[in-house]
Amino acid sequence: MGYVALSARSLPLHCPGDTVRVNAIIAQLRSGNLSLGERAAAAALQLLGSGEDDYYSVDSVADLRINVDSFSPLMFANTVFALAKASEAPGSPDWHTFAREFENISVRKGDYQGFPSIMYHSSDWIGDNISRGNVAELTENYSPVIARTKSLDEMTRYRGKFAALADSAVFERVRMTEMGFRTHRVPTLKKETVKRKDLTEDLRSGDMIILVPNRDGIDFYDIGILSVEDGIPYLIHLSPQSHTVVKESDSLARYMALVSKYFQGYRIIRLRE
User: Fold this and answer.
1) Are the C-beta atoms of 217 and 153 separated by less than 8 Å?
2) Spatial contact of 41 and 206, defined as CB atoms under 8 Å apart
3) I want to staple 265 with a disulfide (CB 3.0 to 4.6 A). Which of 23, 36, 188, 245 is the partner?
4) pTM above threshold 0.85
């Protein structure tokens, strides 16, 4: 899929330094002859050491904002993918290009309409971005795939965790969205398949791995970006253990074994060129 220019929008910044850092990362990604996935993995590595963001728990407006210092799990992936896509743009892409790509991939239909349009559940994110040609899901290319049924109501169930939901109109919009994900089918690969050679040989740098949790209400325990080195995939992610962005020293299979009690299975998502 070729690059498609997006309309400009002014997004708030976490701090002015974000523009400088985004520009530097984009310039570095453009310096090598990298595929889109390799650019995503390289972008993820540039964000090592960044922390966890509590923005949506404390900000009553909770606009979509540019922040390369701290993240929620899905916003980490949004940032990585937007950096990769912006770096492939023609001309002289900069943080303005990133902002357009960030909005495109982070909000429903790529059109920011306040806090309720920001996608929180990974299933919502996957379906929306597949429909607009941004990503492809590879999960069902392999077997056995198990259909996990979940009611995705984390935001309305735990309203107090999201400051913007104090506004009744905002809450109602989010509630209507989550109503669409009651008894939602979540395709997952069994955990042990990550050891299969045919599967691991297909994984590429830049692929997104989503670990589907045991508990109801939400559809991710962990979200990360792969870096494949000498045929071995490693996960770069906002670690649920350290609450910082790390590249695991263990392989993906080993890391998944270590946290196996927290999740049921996993999904594989790939950026579309």
Assistant:
1) yes
2) yes
3) 188
4) yes
Residues of the chain with pLDDT > 90: what percent?
A: 90
Cβ contact 43:226 at 8 Å? no
Asked if 223 and 210 touch (Cβ cutoff 8 Å), the reply is yes
* pLDDT of 10: 73
The two structure tokens encoding residue 39: 């650019």
* C-beta neighbour count of 165 within 10 angstroms: 23
Model confidence over 27-44: pLDDT tens digits? 999 998 999 999 999 999
Asked if residue 272 lies in contact with residue 126, where contact means CB atoms within 8 angstroms, the answer is no
Residues of the chain under the 70 pLDDT cut: 1-9
Tell me how far apart the terminal alpha carbons of the chain are, to the nearest angstrom.
5
In eight-state DSSP terms, residue 182 is T
**Do 220 and 208 form a contact (C-beta atoms < 8 A)?**
no
Based on DSSP, count helices (H) and strands (E) in the chain, helices before strands. Answer: 10, 10
Q: Give 140-146's long-range contacts (Cβ < 8 A, gap of 24+).
A: 140/187, 141/202, 142/189, 142/193, 142/196, 142/198, 142/199, 144/189, 144/190, 144/193, 145/187, 145/188, 145/189, 146/187, 146/188, 146/189, 146/190, 146/264, 146/265
pLDDT digits (tens, 9 = 90+) for 41-90: 999 999 999 999 988 899 899 899 999 999 999 999 999 999 999 999 99
Residue type, 157: R
DSSP structural state of residue 134? S
262 neighbors 213 (Cβ within 8 angstroms):
yes
Using an 8 Å Cβ cutoff, are 219 and 186 in contact? Answer: yes
